[in-house]
Design goal:
The structure is a single chain. It contains four helices and three strands; from the N terminus they run H-E-E-E-H-H-H. It is mainly alpha-helical. It has a domain of 107 residues. Strand 1 and strand 2 form a beta hairpin. It is rod-shaped and about 105 Å long. The N terminus is likely disordered.
Length: 202
C-alpha cells in the first residue's frame, strides 16, 4: 500500500514538472514591446512583420520588437514634429511673401495703366487717321497704330502673368497663415495613431 502511494506521488510530481515547463516557452511570443537584442532584426508572427528597434516616442527606450505599422506611424509622427519645428520660420516666409506681393501688385497697377493708355491712344490715332487726307500723316498714324497694337498685345500678356502671380502669392500667404493650425492637428493625429499601433501586445 505504501509503495502504491509513493509511486502515485512521484507520478504527480513528474506530471506537474512537465506541465509547468510549457508556459516558459510560450512566454517568448513576439509582439510590440517584447525585448529583443539584435538591432534591425526582423521576423514574422501570424502574418505580421516586426523589427527590433527602439521606440523613439518612449524616453530612454530599449530594443524591443515593433510592428512595421508601428514604425511607420512613428515616422509620420516624427515628420509632423519636424514640420511643427519649422513653423518658427513662418514670420520670415510671410514677410518675404508680402515683399513679393507688393512688388507684383505695383507692377500690375503700372502695367494696367500703361495698357489703358495704349488703348486710349490707339483709338485717338485711328480717329485722326480716318479724318486726315494727308497721305504722309496717314502713313505715320498707321505706323503708330501698328506699334500701339503690338504694345497692347505685349502689355496684355504681361498683365495676365502679373495677375496670376498676385493671385498665387495671395493663396500662398493664406496657406501659410493656416499652417500652424493644420500642423498642430497633424501632430495630434499622428501621435494618437502611433500610440494605438505601438500598443504592447499588438
Amino acid at each position: 500500500m505504501f509503495r502504491k502511494v509513493t509511486l502515485s506521488i512521484a507520478a504527480a510530481v513528474l506530471v506537474a514538472g512537465t506541465v509547468t515547463a510549457v508556459p516558459a516557452q510560450a512566454a517568448t511570443k513576439i509582439s510590440n514591446g517584447v525585448a529583443c537584442s539584435k538591432v534591425n532584426a526582423t521576423t514574422k508572427v501570424s502574418g505580421y512583420s516586426y523589427r527590433c528597434a527602439k521606440n523613439t516616442m518612449v524616453k530612454n527606450s530599449k530594443l524591443t520588437w515593433l510592428s512595421v505599422e508601428c514604425l511607420a506611424a512613428i515616422k509620420s509622427y516624427d515628420a509632423a514634429l519636424k514640420a511643427k519645428k519649422d513653423l518658427s520660420s513662418v514670420a520670415t516666409q510671410t514677410a518675404e511673401l508680402d515683399k513679393q506681393l507688393t512688388t507684383a501688385t505695383e507692377a500690375l497697377t503700372k502695367t494696367t495703366a500703361a495698357l489703358d493708355a495704349a488703348k486710349e491712344q490707339i483709338n485717338k490715332s485711328r480717329a485722326t487717321m480716318n479724318l486726315t487726307t494727308n497721305a504722309a500723316e496717314k502713313l505715320a498714324l498707321s505706323n503708330a497704330v501698328s506699334k500701339l497694337a503690338n504694345a497692347i498685345l505685349i502689355l496684355t500678356t504681361s498683365r495676365s502673368k502679373l495677375d496670376s502671380q498676385v493671385k498665387d502669392l495671395i493663396s500662398k500667404k493664406a496657406l501659410l497663415a493656416s499652417a500652424p493650425e493644420q500642423i498642430n492637428a497633424n501632430v495630434t493625429d499622428s501621435k494618437a495613431s502611433a500610440n494605438l499601433l505601438c500598443a504592447k501586445g499588438f
